[in-house]
Amino acid sequence: MGTLIMCISSLLSFLPLLLLSIPTLIQWRFGPARHLQNSGPISYPMIGCLISFYKNRRRLLDWYTDMLSASPSQTILISRLGARRTIVTANPRNVEYILKTNFTNFPKGKPFTDILGDFLGNGIFNVDGDKWCHQRKLVVHQFNATSLRAYVEKVLKDEVEKKLLPVMESAAVGGRAVDLQELLRRFAFDLVCRVSLGYNPCCLEYDCLDARQPILEAFDTASDICARRGAAPLAAVWKIKRFMDYGSEKRLREAIGKIHLFVDDIVSEKKRKIMSCCEKGEERWDEMDLASKMVRDGMDDEFVRDTMISLIMAGRDTTSAAMTWLFYLLSCHPHVGNEMARELTAIQCGDDASGFERLKELRWLKACICESMRLFPPVAWDSKHAMSNDELPDGTKVRAGDRVTYFPYGMGRMKSLWGEDRFEFKPERWVSEVERGRVKALKNYGPYKFSVFQAGPRACPGKEMAFVQMKYVVASIMERFAIRPVIPDRPIFVPLLTAHMARGFKVLVSRR
Ligand code: HEM
Fold this sequence. Notes:
Cofactor: heme
Helix content: 55-70%
Subcellular location: Membrane
Number of strands: 13
Distance between the termini: 90 Å
Bound molecules: protoporphyrin IX containing FE
Largest sheet: 4 strands, mixed
Radius of gyration: 25 Å
GO molecular function, one term: metal ion binding
Binding site for heme: 460
Oligomer: single chain
């Protein structure tokens, strides 16, 4: 009798597991994406690929890239216990379909909003539909061609000449190693705050490079913890921690509080100034920033704040990450840097005092930036969520609710897209025409093969501004300084919300 009871109780203890496994078994046996079953990690009933996902959790980028290379259509299915079914693709036809052809069926979706909602609120990065459309118009208008020129003449030139170059000069004279990634991040933060908020937080000062910058740390903490939410093997864990206000979730709440305070203070001060300027009938440059325009148009405070936080996130780490990897790659390929120096000498400013027209001529430099981002894209992957059942151009069946991820990091490493030498840094692959030793035209690989700026209706509206900024900064540094990494080891690419170099990029700077 005792044995029977023991048997029954053992069976009962397995019952929840058996019940849990039924949906997974059904999916495994009859799931609509069955033709992808050999394209992706080994999956088991009930747990899916949880074991291999866990084993590869520290090298997800390369794990996905290897599987995508082996997949006949460069698309894989990741299905694991505790997480949403995810289709990852490096196939340009699929990417075009998701980002443009059937855009409305692939919004960011609630699962994305859940992860980033506490931090980004209703900011452009985190909304779909009408809310997105409204902010998109504001942002695109802000970054039109006329304002781009004004940006170079008034903000970029000023920040480079008064801040960045003096800091580089001090580093060259002082002879001590500086973290170039940190320096560029601070520079980009100051810049994007001036453009979006019309406020200069002055985070880049040579004397203060070692000093903590609480607002930068708050942004780092918030984006880091949100990215880890997205990559967590079990989403329930961070939700419970948030409910209990514990550990990383408590730190996230505190960091968001600091960020809100920072933006709110600036916006209130702006309101006060604008009101007083309006009373006196004055028009000033700093009213050209987006926050001022939104305040002047009477937009809601919370809406202004959310838009600002998204913009700061967009402009802050992306360009600095791209430039950091470019300087690293140049240090490994001196001949590419020599070619850049030749181009910079050959193309001078002439009457163009701000250098804006000159930037358009620096095509080898642009090829180097594109090639660097092909290998180390600032946004390594990006996901949408399917609204309804669908089928991608390669035949992959998508179910309503699936996460669909396009993957610029993997795309830059596909032999089918870039050939045998895909792992090599070769800016010449971007050059289409050379005349008397100068690059006259570049190839356009199209946004679905080179998807680092996303594509379609949600393509990055800051793309031109980013190129202008990166060209201006790299040219200004390369013309004056030589950069040598302190540790010649291969750095590690960390793909959080925006990718960066683990432990920074320590360099020695000397005058040319
Ligand atoms: C190398 C630099 C940059 C890269 C690689 C880049 C890439 C991207 C990518 C991949 C997205 C889509 C992200 C998503 O939907 O989750 C995006 C969106 C966006 N980017 Fe950029 N970006 C760069 C620089 C900038 C800059 C400098 C700004 C402006 C200051 C900017 C503003 C935006 C905005 C506002 C969005 C949201 C667009 C929307 O949802 O409609 N970006 N960017």
